[in-house]
Queue: 3 jobs
Job 1
Amino acid sequence: MKQTVKAIIDEQGHVRLAEPVKIKGLHRALVTILDEAPVEIDEVTQLAETALAEDWLKPEEDEAWTHLQ
C-alpha cells in the first residue's frame, strides 16, 4: 500500500515525519522538497492527530471506507 506522509526537512537534511508511520520491513521512499515553508501546527492539534491516528490507521477503518474509493 502506498502512503503519503508529511515531513519537514531541516538545513542539515534531517527528515522529521509529521505523523507516525506503521510499516513492516524495509521500504523505498521518495522525498519531494516543496518551495514553501512548513505551516506550524499548534501542539494541541498535533496531540489530537496522534491520538486519532491510532484509530484511523486500523485495517477495519480502511475497510469501512472502501466503498468511497
Job 2
Amino acid sequence: MIPSSPADALGSHAPGVRDVLIEVARSTHNHFAEAHEVSRSRYAMGFGAQWRDLLSGAHDAMKDRGFSSSKLPPAGYKLPVVNDCLVYLWRVSDSSDPSSFASSQTKKNGFGVRPPDPMLFETIDDIPEEGELERVVQAAGGTMPLVLVMVHSSHLQLQSIEWAVAELIEETGKVNLHGRQTIWRPEPVVETMTSDVESFDSGAPVMPAIAPREQEGLDPDA
C-alpha cells in the first residue's frame, strides 16, 4: 500500500528528516552556485553536476543521525532508509518532469527494494519490541516506499524544495506523486517605504521656501 504522503511514510521522523534534507539541498546549491560564478562559465553543465553531491550529502547526513542505508544497483547509489522508506534527494532540471523520474535502471530499482529481513538480527538486543516487530514483519511482505525530495533550482536561485511519495507505474514507466508538498521556498523580498514621505493622492505639495543668497565678494552697501 502506497502511503498518502511523506509525513505518513516517515512517521515521527518526518519533521527532523525534512529539516536535514532542506539543509543539505541549500548547502549543496550554495556551493555549486558559488563555483559557477567563480568559473564565469557561460554554460550550466557544471552546476547541474550537483546531483551526485545531493545523494551523498543526504546519505551521510542521515547516517550520522543513526539511520541505515540501501544501495541501488547497478550504479550503487546509497539512499537513506527511514521508517522502512527510501529517501531520494533529486534536483529537477528545467528540462525534467517529475513524472519521468524513473529514467534510468538505477532509479527504477529504487521502487523494488525490500526492507531488511526482520528475522536477521545480530543480537538479542537488536530484536524490536512486539508492536515494532509486527510493523516490520508487515513491511517485509512488500517493497519500501520511495520518498522523492525534489530540488528546483538554477545557478541564479534555489527556487523551491518539494517532497512526495513516488509510485512507479510499470505499464507506462511514469511516476505518480502522492502527497506532493512544498517544504521550502525563499523568503519574499519586502521593500519598505519611508514612513515620513507624504502621499500626493490628495491636497497639494508644499514647496520648500527659497531665500535669495548674496553673491560672495560683493559689497552689499555698494
Job 3
Amino acid sequence: MSATNTIFDVFVIGGGINGVGIANDAAGRGLNVALCEMNDLASATSSASSKLIHGGLRYLEYYEFGLVKKALAEREVLLKNAPHIISPLVFRLPHQAHLRPAWMIRAGLFLYDNLSKRLTLPKSKGIKFKSTDPLKVEITKGFEYADAWVDDSRLTVLNALSAKSNGAKLFTQTKVLEAKSVNGIWHLKVLDRVTGETSQMHSKTLVNAAGPWVENITDNINSAESHGIRLVKGSHIVVPKIHHDQHAYILQNEDQRIVFVLPFEDDFSLIGTTDVDYQDDPQQAEISQDEIDYLVSITNSYFKHQISQQDIVHTFAGVRPLLHDEAEDAKAVTRDYTIELSTNGHAPLLNIYGGKITTYRTLAESAVDKLSTLFPNLKPAWTKNTTLPGGDFNSRSMLSAKLAEEFPWLPIALRQRYVRSYGSLCYRFLDGCYTQEDLGEHYGSGLYQKELCYLVQHEWAKSLDDVIWRRTKLGLRLSKQEKEKINQYLASKLTEHSYAQKCCA
C-alpha cells in the first residue's frame, strides 16, 4: 500500500455509516485520514436497517426525549443534504382499542411534532380509514405522521466518496490484524484480503468504529477499556407489495413491539424489524423461522391482503451494537451513542459505542470534536450545511426532467432509478453516451456496463453483492443466470490494481 510510509492523523477502523461519517468529517476539517474496512462498505449493520431517517416515535415510551429531539433535528438536515437518497415518507398508524390507548398516541405525536422544529414535513393528524383502504375493515381509525426514507448503504457510500474527495484514503477488504502503541504512535498491521499481503500503517490517533465488533477491537489493544455492548438482531422480509398506496404503515403488536410495512423499490413491501438478543458472529446473522412467523403474523393481523412465507423474495438481518443499559427487553435498549477518548497507557484511542443511522452525522461531528485538543489547528465543523455527493440539485423531478432533455433515449424507469440512487453523480457514467447502446452490455434489469464500471472504479464495488444489494437493490429483480453473468464478469476482470484500467477498455 502506498500509505505505509505515512503517519496519518486519524486511522478509522470500520466502514459502516459511523466510521465513514467520522472519516468524512475529519478529512473535511484538514486531518490526514485513513479508513480500513475488513469487508465492503456498509456490509453489516449499515445496510440492514429499516431504511428510515426518523426520530424514533417508539423511543418516547422509554423517555428517550434527548435522543428523539436530536434525531428529529437531524432528519431535517439530512433531507436537505441528500435529496437523491432521502425523501419524505408519510406513515399511517392504525389504532386498535386493545393496544396503546389513543390518548397516549396523541400525546406522543404531539411531542414528536414539537420536540424539534419541522421545516419540510407535515404535522401529525388523526384519520379515519375507508373500506377501500388496504387494512381490514374492522380497523376504522388511526393517525398519520411523517418521517423520511433513506437508502442506508448508499448513504454510507456517499459519505465515503465525500471523505475521499477531502483527501481521505479508504481501504476496503482490508482487515486490521494488530494495533500497538509505540512512542505515542499507533502501529497497525493490516491484511489486504484480496491479495493476501500484509503491511504496516501508522497513525497519531485510532478510531474504533467497528460496530458489532467494537469490543473485539478493544480486546486486542493493550490497556483499552471495555464498555459493555449488547448485540441486538433486527430482521426484515421483503414481499411483493401488499397495497398500492404510497404510505408506510406502523403496526402495534400486543407485545408492545412495533413493525413497519414500508414501500420498497416500487414493486415490493419491506416488513420489519424484530429485536432479538444475539450472541454469535454478526457477519453470520440471518433471520430465524420464529422471526419470519412473527412478521408474517402481525402483517396478516392488519391487512386484507394476506401473505405467507412462500411470498418472501428476500430477507436480511443486521446486528446493532447497543449500549448495555440493563434493560430487560431488547426493544427497550437505548439507541443513543457514547464516544470515549482514552489515552490510558497508549496513544489516543476513540471508541464509538451504539448509535443509529439518523444521528450518524452528529456522532461523527462529536467524535472529531473530541480530537480538537490533540489537533489545535482543526477546522470548524462543516457537514451540517454541505450536500453529499450527487445531492446538488433542487428536486428529483427537476433533475429527472433535465436528464430527459439531455438523454431523451434513456428509459423512464432507468432515469428515475439513477436520480434516486446517484443524483447528479449519474453524469459520471452518462456523459459521452448518445444512445442506449452506448451504455454498453446489458446485464439485466437495467444494469449496464457503464454503471457497473463506475461502481467498481469509483465506489469500491468488488463483488456481486456489493453491486446488486449495497450499491443498487437490483438483486430483487435479476435472475439467477443474470447474477451469474455479472459475477463471472467481475471475477474475470477484477483485481485490486488492474480492474479500473481494464473495465471500460
